[in-house]
Design a protein that fits this description.
219 residues; 19 strands; 47% strand; 5-stranded mixed beta sheet; mainly beta; 6-stranded mixed beta sheet; single chain
C-alpha cells in the first residue's frame, strides 16, 4: 500500500515496478528471481454534512455526502455502529440527541480508513419555548402595548388564537403567527379586566401546542 515499503534483495522498495535479484547457491550456480510490485493507494475517508453547523432542529433532513478517494466500498457509522442511510444520503434521525457520524472507506485489497467523527446535535422546540404574556397595558406608551406570542415563530405552520371577554363574547381572533392585539374590539378600546384566550399551534416538527389562559388588560 502507498506509504509502506517491501524488502527485496536486501533493499527496501516502495515504488511500483519489476525488480530482480541474483541468488547464488553453494555450488556457485546463479538464479535470477523477479518481483513485480504493485502499490495500491491508501483509501482516504471523508464526507460533508448539510446543513452545516453543530446543531439542527428535529425534522430537518441531514444530508451526508461521501467525498472519499481510492475507495471501492464505504460504510457509514453512527456512534461507531454501522447504519444505512435513507434514500442513499439522508441520516436516519427519529429523536433529539447528539449524533456522531463517521465514514469507513475500504479498497479491494481490504485496506480501511475511518474518518474523524463529525457530531451534530438534534434539538426541538416545544410548548415551553413559546410564551404568551398574561397582562398588557395598551396605553400608547410603546411599552407592553400589545398581546402577542414570543418564540420561534418560523417553526409555526398553523396558528389559531381567540380571545373572549368575561361574558364569553369573542373580541379578537387571528390565524397569523405574527398577530398582535391592542385591546380593542370593533375599533374601540375595551375596558380593563380579565380576558381569556384559546391558542392552538402546530409546529413543523409535528408538535402541537393547545393552550388556554387568561390575560389582564390594564389601562
Amino acid at each position: 500500500f502507498g506509504g509502506q515499503s517491501f524488502t527485496f534483495g536486501g533493499q527496501s522498495i516502495s515504488a511500483a515496478g519489476t525488480y530482480y535479484d541474483t541468488l547464488t547457491n553453494v555450488a556457485g550456480c546463479d538464479s535470477i528471481i523477479g518481483l513485480t510490485l504493485t502499490v495500491l493507494p491508501i483509501p482516504v475517508a471523508s464526507f460533508s454534512i448539510q446543513p452545516s453547523g453543530d446543531s439542527v432542529q428535529l425534522g430537518t433532513n441531514i444530508t451526508l455526502t461521501n467525498s472519499s478517494t481510492n475507495a471501492d466500498s464505504i460504510q457509514w457509522l453512527l456512534n461507531d455502529q454501522a447504519i444505512s442511510l435513507v434514500s442513499s444520503n439522508i441520516l436516519p434521525v427519529s429523536d433529539t440527541g447528539l449524533y456522531c457520524i463517521s465514514l469507513s472507506a475500504s479498497n479491494a485489497a481490504g485496506c480501511t480508513n475511518i474518518s474523524t467523527p463529525q457530531c451534530i446535535r438534534v434539538f426541538t422546540y416545544g410548548p415551553q419555548n413559546f410564551y404568551m404574556p398574561n397582562a398588557f397595558t395598551p396605553n400608547g406608551d410603546g411599552i407592553n402595548d400589545f398581546i402577542e406570542i414570543y418564540g420561534k415563530k418560523d417553526l409555526v405552520i398553523y396558528l389559531s388564537i381567540q380571545i373572549f371577554d368575561r361574558w364569553g363574547e369573542k373580541v379578537f381572533e387571528s390565524n397569523d403567527s405574527g398577530f398582535s392585539w391592542d385591546g380593542t374590539y370593533k375599533g374601540k378600546p375595551l375596558t380593563p379586566g380579565l380576558y381569556t384566550y384559546v391558542l392552538n399551534i402546530t409546529l413543523n416538527t409535528g408538535q402541537s401546542i393547545n393552550n388556554k389562559g387568561s390575560i389582564t388588560l390594564i389601562r
